[in-house]
Design brief:
This protein is an alpha/beta fold and 332 residues long. Helix content is 36%, strand content 12%.
């Protein structure tokens, strides 16, 4: 679907420091004293930002997601009711470039606090293939040391899937926490405490992934195939290589040459599994797997939680993804 096409925007690659002040004054919004129940009314664009805001805001925020469970986020259309809700909110947390309809609605919305998650960490351009080098990547270092490891083929653009890298997600958490402190200074101490707790949990998740994936000798293969390039940041972080059938757009049709290349690569690199996701058709993944005698499994891009999700929240699904990856990569 054309609406899924990502919007290239070099301006999204802002420094984290700038992101911490990603608040735009464009109107009066709802005054703190007028809030229903005394809570900060926040609209989040989709699940990862909803979860993060709820974790940081705790009892002091009321969070509404524009993307209902089971709806593919990129294809979201904003209803008149949602537009009204957005205009009545105290704040919005969104990811510019992921959902064109949300970007347009936020731009028009007259509310005081607008937090763009894409400005809270560094964004990169990814294509069909994204690789990270475990031997060269210092796990504890910052973004600079691995920014050059990603490489793009054919379709490329700013990759919005930052939440699938726990380190980047933690950077976004810090920025959202700072934004909530500014929007609701009366509860700043609680927001700071909750942010620190979430960042600590994400640090623990990062260590789990690193322990399971970064030991080159422990895996039979370091290459995995997905329906679309949602896991580029994760691959870079942990020294893996993601080969995507459809690049950043899962609705596009891969060429016969691409399919043939993937079949050859799978055999050469010891790939065992083709991953698909619950919100997108698995037809191409299963066809490729069948033709190449490979298995299929779910690797969840965590764009929403549904009854089909292998977990009930961000952390449980990320751990299910880790189990799927280690199984497919042949942990010895």
């Amino acid at each position: 679907m054309n609406v899924r096409r990502l919007i290239p925007a070099a301006a999204l690659s802002s420094a984290v420091l700038l992101g911490l002040t990603a608040l735009t004054a464009c109107g009066s919004g709802s005054a703190a004293a007028d809030r229903k129940g005394g809570r900060l009314d926040v609209v989040a664009s989709f699940y990862p930002l909803q979860f993060l805001t709820e974790q940081i805001g705790g009892d002091h925020v009321s969070v509404t997601s524009l993307t209902k469970p089971g709806v593919e986020p990129h294809d979201l259309e904003i209803s008149a009711k949602q537009t009204a809700k957005l205009n009545d909110a105290d704040a919005v947390v969104y990811l510019k470039g992921l959902q064109p309809a949300v970007d347009a609605a936020v731009k028009q919305a007259d509310l005081k606090t607008k937090v763009d998650a894409s400005t809270l960490t560094t964004m990169e351009k990814h294509g069909n293939e994204v690789g990270g080098h475990a031997a060269e990547h210092d796990h504890t270092a910052g973004e600079e040391d691995h920014a050059d490891h990603g490489h793009s083929h054919s379709e490329s653009g700013d990759d919005p899937h930052i939440w699938l890298d726990p380190v980047k997600y933690a950077e976004v958490a810090k920025g959202v926490g700072a934004a909530l402190e500014k929007a609701d200074p009366a509860h700043a101490a609680d927001y700071r405490k909750n942010t620190d707790a979430l960042v600590t949990k994400l640090g623990g998740l990062d260590k789990e992934y690193a322990a399971a994936l970064k030991n080159t000798k422990a895996l039979k293969s370091r290459v995995f195939i997905t329906t679309h390039a949602a896991f580029g940041y994760l691959a870079e972080r942990y020294g893996l290589t993601e080969e995507a059938i459809n690049g950043l757009d899962p609705d596009s049709e891969p060429s016969p040459a691409r399919i043939k290349d993937l079949q050859k690569m799978a055999k050469a690199d010891g790939v065992t599994t083709v991953f698909y996701e619950t919100l997108v058709s698995d037809k191409t993944a299963k066809t490729l797997a069948s033709d190449a005698s490979l298995k299929t499994d779910v690797l969840d891009p965590l764009e929403g939680i549904t009854d089909k999700s292998k977990g009930t929240d961000y952390f449980s699904v990320m751990r299910s993804n880790l189990t799927a990856l280690t199984t497919a990569l042949g942990t010895k």
